Amino acid sequence: MGLGVAECFAAAGMGVVLTDATPELTRRAKDRLARRARGHAEAGLISEEAAARVEAVEAADEMAVAVDGVELVFEAVPEDIMLKEEILSSCSGAARDAIIVSNTSSLPINDLSAFVEHPGRFCGMHWFNPPEWTPGVEVIPAAATEEEVVGRLVEFLRSIGKRPAVVGDGPGFVANRIQNALFLEAVRCVEEGLASPREVDEVVRSCFGFRLPFFGPFQIADMAGLDVYENVLDVLEEGLGERFEAPGALRDLVEEGRTGTKSGAGFLEYTDEERERLLLERDRRYAALNELLKDLPPVDAGSAP
Ligand SMILES: NC(=O)c1ccc[n+]([C@@H]2O[C@H](COP(=O)([O-])OP(=O)(O)OC[C@H]3O[C@@H](n4cnc5c(N)ncnc54)[C@H](O)[C@@H]3O)[C@@H](O)[C@H]2O)c1
Questions:
Q1: How far is the CA of 210 from the centre of ligand 1 (A)?
Q2: Ligand 1 contact, 145 CB (< 6 A)
């Protein structure tokens, strides 16, 4: 993750200093980063100028040297709380006024914030693989993180073309929680013999997953109709148990007649004009995605065991 994020930062024109556990690993990381940027330029994915900026990234053998005088420290060591403690505490001593962020996937940000000298300038920043291309980044403030720091991080991520979302410090934050709920049901479908892994993948990517580059679950539910969702959940709960129980927030909206775009309000609110525009833009985007998928069909890799 560290290399991909370093490529993003450097390609966007920021000065970057890499460091790893040993001088030899740091040298190898710098070489790998340069090779990867060259490969991306040759594939036409980044410009020659951006690749040259990435190739010029600096490296420092000592962490204290790497973080000296920087504005932002991006920590991406393995997901081991003891190692995070060691690295965060030593770099926070050396980094003076820097904001320090941790790219943890799952460790509580409040716990990590106890390892730095200035928790007000510490924040979670969860990127997604591959970081060069995935736009979304979760920004997870600890209880002590200053609001101004969160604002600066969000602004910075937007300035390099990312799509940050500020989320709470709950288990798995938002993305891993939802992604794993999907994954668990996918595995259960296979275990129960409903479909093979390939078929599940096809259903997810081509049915409801097809919409996900454009809309999240709330807008999708609003467009489908919350009353429809409630009915479907009742059937699922009957067959699969209480993990599918319709949440109170959904039942309340249906009760109030807020059934989604068709009623002018669901989880979000829509004027007539907004609803017409939403549905038209939805159709335009889906048609464009279908065209793109004709040129870029699914990657046919992996075979059934
Ligand atoms: N892999 C993913 O898809 C992904 C996605 C989001 C977040 N994350 C998170 O990012 C972090 C890094 O994950 P990764 O998959 O890139 O791990 P990785 O093992 O690929 O990379 C970790 C890097 O940290 C270096 N390192 C180890 N000990 C060190 C030390 N003492 N000092 C300095 N550097 C040290 C390693 O040499 C390696 O270069 C983890 O917290 C992980 O949960 C990973």
A1: 31
A2: no
Beta bridge partners of 141: 123
Q: Which atom of ligand 1 is nearest to the CA of 79?
A: 41
Q: List CB contacts of 18: < 8 A, sequence separation 6 or more.
A: 2, 3, 6, 26, 29, 30, 33, 57, 58, 59, 60, 66
Strand pairing class (122-126; 136-141): antiparallel
CA of 75 to the centre of ligand 1 (A): 8
- Ligand 1 atom closest to Cα of 104? 41
The residue behind tokens 């900026």 is 53
Looking at the CA of residue 77, tell me the nearest atom of ligand 1.
24
Compute, in angstroms, the gap from residue 250 CA to the centroid of ligand 1.
Answer: 39
Rg (CA), the chain: 23
- C-alpha 78 to ligand 1 mean position (Å): 4
Regarding the beta carbon of 176 and ligand 1, being less than 6 Å apart is answered no
If one residue of 27, 30, 74, 77 were mutated to test the ligand 1 pocket, choosing by the most ligand atoms within 8 A of its CB, it would be 77
Output the tens digit of pLDDT for each of the chain's 305 residues: 999 999 999 999 999 999 999 999 999 999 999 999 999 999 999 999 999 999 999 999 999 999 999 999 999 999 999 999 999 999 999 998 999 999 999 999 999 999 999 999 999 999 999 999 999 999 999 999 999 999 999 999 999 999 999 999 999 999 999 999 999 999 999 999 999 999 999 999 999 999 999 999 999 999 999 999 999 999 999 999 999 999 999 999 999 999 999 999 999 999 999 999 999 999 999 999 999 999 988 887 787 77
CA distance 253 to 34: 53
- Helix 217-224 and helix 272-295, axial crossing angle in degrees, nearest 10: 110
Give me the DSSP letters along 285-303.
HHHHHHHHHHHSPPP----
